[in-house]
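agent> Task received from the user: take the single chain below, predict its 3D structure, and emit structure tokens. No templates, no multimer pairing.
agent> Plan: (1) validate residues, (2) run structure prediction, (3) serialize to tokens, (4) report one or two observations.
agent> Step 1 OK, no nonstandard residues flagged.
tool_call: predict_structure(input=
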Amino acid sequence: MSDRTDAIPVSILLVEDDAGDALLIRKALKDGKINNSVDTVTDGAAALAYLRGQPPHTGAARPDLILLDLNLPKIDGRQVLAEAKNDPDLRQIPVIILTTSRAEEDVIRSYDLHANAYVEKPFDINQFIRAVQKIDEFFLTVARLSPR
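)
tool_result: status=success, residues=148
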């Protein structure tokens, strides 16, 4: 396992419409030992605009990792996932589904759409934070991300 504390910061796009969950996720990522930056958008349309560098996200850096909720306003996370994985410029970005949905059809569909992982948000705050830190640890310390 590599130690990335001195590595180039990892850019994370957090797509989360629940302000409380977004705050917890950002806190968990900040408390991790990885030097990363987190940009947050609150709906699927904003996520696609961000990923495509469209206004108001013109010039936004391509994220190294996407944390994606499924149940989003405007465009749901399933469609965001489908469009990202069908775009040759975006498909190599790992997408982690981070959702309250425990529906088997959501798990199956997410993997059919090439999600890299499906994580159910725990209801307990401490377990929630630990789950996000485990994502952080695995994808940013153990796994090797695609070069920018």
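agent> Step 4: summary for the user.
The longest helix spans residues 125-142.
agent> Done.
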